[in-house]
Amino acid sequence: MKKSLIALAVLAAAAGSAQAQSSVTVYGVLDMAFNAENNGQYSKGKGNIYSLDSGVQSGSRLGFKGSEDLGNGLKANFKLEMGVQADTGASAQGGLAFGRAAWVGLSGDFGAVQVGRQNKPVFDVVDSIDPFGTGIIGGSATDSTSATGLGNLVFATNPRSNNTINYTTNNLSGFTGSLAYTAGEQAGDIGKGRGIGVSGSYAAGPLLVAGAYHTENDTAAVVNATKTAFVGATYDFGAAKGALSFAKIKTDNNSVAYKLWSVGVTVPVSAAGAVISSLTMVKNDVVSSDNGSNQFALGYTHSLSKRTNLYTSVSRLKNDAKVNAGGIASGIGATERLFNVGIRHAF
């Protein structure tokens, strides 16, 4: 009995020592909203559709992240993050177990290296500039029923990439940069499916300037790469924060060729609330006429605490006769109207 108690004491001491050297955090987000859509893809041009949707402001998720202190400033890090459809309980990202992130890496004075499934550098840059972030109606990178914004062009395929090695610098007097390489893993040709991304941002007081470039080869033909370039800036005037951005998306075979301009503003109206709005204009260079699209979005967020907030937004997107601005927007030549109201809780 005494030997057992001694063994348990030794194990407890060892566990305490290990815990002092490493940490694991369980976290998540639950986001649910009521959506109303008129003349969009999900209503198939047949009038209105009403729904309860998950992940409208930001994707609902459950995650695990942690680090281990290896000494001399070196750390081992990991992140496993699964997307959750809170309205049904199903997995998001096509049912992947950890569709939002699954990587391991090292960090230190040299910066950070991550290996696995993770965000493309251009995703994080766009998210830092767009006043709607990656969600609500005007957002940059959502794939929910409410998405009609910038990201439906920039991220028409996927804002994340598998089989990726990513290096990110530490903060260098306001500058941070990332470089990512994605292995295509196609037999017989190292170039098929290969992706390369680079980004950089500079922050100085109220000013943020950022840019990114991403090229991704088709898995069937190296010559048909999709290339995305983005540049943007924000400036916080105190009473309001303005945002400007430009993006260009093009394939080598010219089947896709878009230019996109966006201007936005965030206006705090109280200690807990802020009004956000954006105007996005798109030009489809594949065709020479009736090739424009524009979207106006207006939203409001209200914090109930540090972890819980309410939100609402409305948008109108108008496509010319030869444009469908985004993978989930209204059809060619159609006008789509969207409204939502929701709640987001982080834990």
Automatic annotation (TrEMBL):
<dbReference type="GO" id="GO:0046930">
    <property type="term" value="C:pore complex"/>
</dbReference>
<dbReference type="GO" id="GO:0034220">
    <property type="term" value="P:monoatomic ion transmembrane transport"/>
</dbReference>
<feature type="signal peptide">
    <location>
        <begin position="1"/>
        <end position="20"/>
    </location>
</feature>
<feature type="domain" description="Porin">
    <location>
        <begin position="7"/>
        <end position="321"/>
    </location>
</feature>
<protein>
    <submittedName>
        <fullName>Porin</fullName>
    </submittedName>
</protein>
<dbReference type="InterPro" id="IPR023614">
    <property type="entry name" value="Porin_dom_sf"/>
</dbReference>
<dbReference type="GO" id="GO:0015288">
    <property type="term" value="F:porin activity"/>
</dbReference>
<dbReference type="InterPro" id="IPR002299">
    <property type="entry name" value="Porin_Neis"/>
</dbReference>
<keyword id="KW-1134">Transmembrane beta strand</keyword>
<dbReference type="GO" id="GO:0009279">
    <property type="term" value="C:cell outer membrane"/>
</dbReference>
<dbReference type="InterPro" id="IPR001702">
    <property type="entry name" value="Porin_Gram-ve"/>
</dbReference>
<keyword id="KW-0813">Transport</keyword>
<dbReference type="Pfam" id="PF13609">
    <property type="entry name" value="Porin_4"/>
</dbReference>
<keyword id="KW-0732">Signal</keyword>
<keyword id="KW-0626">Porin</keyword>
<comment type="subunit">
    <text>Homotrimer.</text>
</comment>
<dbReference type="InterPro" id="IPR033900">
    <property type="entry name" value="Gram_neg_porin_domain"/>
</dbReference>
<keyword id="KW-0406">Ion transport</keyword>
<keyword id="KW-0812">Transmembrane</keyword>
<keyword id="KW-0998">Cell outer membrane</keyword>
<keyword id="KW-0472">Membrane</keyword>
<dbReference type="InterPro" id="IPR050298">
    <property type="entry name" value="Gram-neg_bact_OMP"/>
</dbReference>
